[in-house]
Amino acid sequence: MSSLPPRHHCPYALDGSAADIHGEAAALRTMGPATQVELPGGVAAWSVTDPDLVRRLLVHPHVSMDAHQHWPAYLNGDLPADWPLQIWVDIRTVQTAYGPDHRRLRRPLVPAFTARRVRALASRIAETAAAVLDDVAEVAATAPDGVVDLRTHFASRLPWLMVTALLGLPEAMHDDFQRINDTVFATDLTAEQAAANTAEATRLLGSLIAVKTERPGDDVTSALVDAHRTGLLGEQELADSLWMMMGAGYGTTAGLLDHAVVNLLTHPAQLDLAMSGRVGWDQVVEETLRHQAPVANFFLRFLTEDLYDEATGLTFARGDALVINYAAVGRDPGVHGPDAHVFDITRPTAREHLAFGYGSHYCLGAELARLEGRIALPALFSRYPGLAFAVAPDRLTPLPSLIFNGHRELPVRLDRTSNRWT
Ligand code: HEM
């Protein structure tokens, strides 16, 4: 039995262009701890916004991420042929696996993310950030108006270079993979665009796997190729895991750096607190993760059995699909108070977010992403103390993705004296 509203009740339609992620999250929160929504393409799901309910569902044994086993709409061919979110459920990775399959797919990835391995990356992050900031200066110096897009040249660039280092991507392949990564996970693609991207991605991954099979290194790609050689991973699982790793480590961390820059530039007193050391950069990172969850919504989970949640009185039916609304969770007024929508690096509850998930699927790259933020943000603001927007901040356009929360561009000038917005 399901507690889904009767059919005459129109489900809330999520906006695939993601023009106002937080407006949507706030509206959904007022409708209850979980609300029936229509995903782009007209597919039904629940959007879960309540932090406690999210925690209970994420550790519940009857909640799976595997559409291939547990989503009747997928198995019965009920999804639209050109469904824009298809890739999120087709892909066979740690993020779409359940139970023993999940543990098997996670195993070859874990060694690259131990606390020791991540700590050892600190100097590499610092060197890479310094080189990225040199390039930022060069771009600004050669631009006729002195404007540089910090989304492209900083917020995306550093995480991308760290992902390529982790995966051991040959330099000649960097740009091709980055180009395809920038579009393939968008949630507003046409069927033709999505198909062309998938074909290009498959070709590129084939070349990468061939290179690493011939010349393995101390990197995640080689570990995955080896796991395939020993029979731990199937062929599709190998290709999809590589693909997933690029997306998981890149657009997410880019969103963190992007929103931290925007929030600090629009809250100069808080930037002063961080620059003077009165508030730590770890607190800046946590408050940004809370206030602007870089993964705004995560698609999808499925009920393997009917589930009655006593605390909310909700019943989810076997086969129902769930979207975890991390954007809503981070701004829950019950946890953070009535000013939950305000960016405040002194907030005592800044760490009480679920931006990296919860339970067995907890983000493997959480400490790496935090470290990138703690190193790159002070490096940026120390190098360019006059950094200022080149457009009014309210003119920044969000990425057209329900999943990755960030901006298309962050046009800035490096010297505030030449800027009319400050
Ligand atoms: C600020 C940056 C990041 C954020 C906000 C973030 C967020 C998340 C979230 C929310 C999940 C769990 C999704 C769910 O199950 O509902 C997740 C899983 C994951 N993340 Fe991250 N992530 C970030 C950076 C990274 C990085 C840098 C890497 C690796 C290079 C990474 C690799 C992964 C992997 C492999 C998983 C899947 C774990 C599993 O399913 O067992 N992430 N991440």
Question: What do these coordinates show?
Answer:
The protein is an alpha+beta fold. It has a single domain (12-418), classed as Orthogonal Bundle (Cytochrome p450), CATH 1.10.630.10. Helix content is 49%, strand content 10%. The longest helix is centred in the middle third of the chain and has 32 residues, at 235-266. It is globular, with a radius of gyration of 21 Å. The protein binds protoporphyrin IX containing FE (HEM). Protoporphyrin IX containing FE binds next to helix 10, helix 14 and helix 19.
* Spatial sequence of strands, sheet with the most strands: 1-2-3-9-6-4
In CATH, what is the homologous superfamily?
A: Cytochrome P450
Number of domains: 1
CATH architecture, by name, is Orthogonal Bundle
Mean pLDDT: 93
Look at the structure and give the CATH class.
Mainly Alpha
Provide the gyration radius in Å.
21 Å
Total helices: the number is 19
Indicate the overall shape: globular
Helix content: 40-55%
* Poorly predicted ranges: 1-8, 418-422
Counting helices, strands and paired strands, the structural category is alpha+beta
Query: How much strand?
Result: 5-15%
Keywords:
alpha+beta, 6-stranded mixed sheet, binds protoporphyrin IX containing FE, globular, 3-stranded antiparallel sheet, single chain, 422 residues, disordered C terminus, disordered N terminus, Cytochrome p450, 10% strand
